[in-house]
Amino acid sequence: MHKTLTDVEEEFISLTRQVARTVGIDLTPFSDDEILTALESFDDWFTCFQIENDVDIHYGNEIEHWTEANRVMFEAIGITGLSDDILISVEKKWRERLKTWEMLRPEAKSTIYELHKRGYPLGVCTRRPDDPSYLLREWGILDKFSTVRWTSVPGYAKPYPYTLILAADDLGVNPQNCAFVGNSVDVDVVAAQRAGMTPVLATWAYTEEVVETPEGTYIINKVSELLDLLIEL
């Protein structure tokens, strides 16, 4: 979904600075590289935490789930002593900003409408930690999807095939008769292969991914190319 059907207004580091500023945390003294390293510390800690605590598939959906992870991020750049209340405020601001951060790509809506009109059962599988249905509804395409599966929990999330298999079951289609579209070889193509689906790599977000494309992967340069590709498949 992210950068496959959507685009973003600004990059994640800029968004991080903006969110921190809204709760009175000034990240101006820190370079983009320092913030990136802090975000990586956040990811590493949260990944280990979720696995060690055997959390459920939709862990991360609640604001409180992110308190300690956000603390780890800020402490990684030397900002310590933040209260739980401030950290919860950070997460609330994140969620408010994320509602408008992503936008549907211009040709995505018409392509989805046409695929639905042609009778293709459609679904979404995303590594978001929260249910994206509200965004799909806002963009006027939720009713075109028969299933929406989401998780960012390691072991369930892509590149593991869990959500893809669940989605195929929801659609009533054998995974080997499904195509899965994404923009990352390591995440999306691998997940499709593990699920037994035909991988389709979208190149508009990360053109460098093409050089790593494994055999059997179809490549599209714009969303509308799906209309002809799926006929061939």
Explain the overall architecture.
The chain has 233 residues and is of the alpha/beta class. It has two domains: 7-101; 104-232, Rossmann fold (3-Layer(aba) Sandwich), CATH 3.40.50. A three-stranded parallel sheet has the order 5-6-7, with helices on both faces. The protein has helices at residues 12-22, 32-52, 67-76, 84-101, 108-117, 133-138, 162-171, 185-195, 226-232, and strands at residues 6-8, 102-104, 123-126, 147-150, 179-182, 198-202, 218-220. The mean pLDDT is 94. It starts with 5 loop residues before the first strand and ends with a helix.
CATH class bucket of the largest domain? Alpha Beta
Average pLDDT score: 94
Please compute the radius of gyration using only Cα atoms: 19 Å
Q: What proportion of the residues is helical, as a percent range?
A: 40-55%
Order of helices and strands: EHHHHEHEHEHEHEEH
C-alpha geometry: globular
Tally of contiguous helical segments: 9
Order of strands in the sheet with most strands: 5-6-7
- Report on the biggest sheet: 3 strands, parallel
- What structural class do the secondary elements suggest? alpha/beta
Distance linking N and C termini: 21 Å
CATH architectural type of the largest domain: 3-Layer(aba) Sandwich
What is the domain total for the residues? Answer: 2
CATH superfamily of the largest domain: HAD superfamily/HAD-like
Strand content: 5-15%
Topology-level CATH name of the largest domain: Rossmann fold
Given as residue ranges, the uncertain stretches (5+ residues, pLDDT < 50) are none
Number of E-state strands = 7
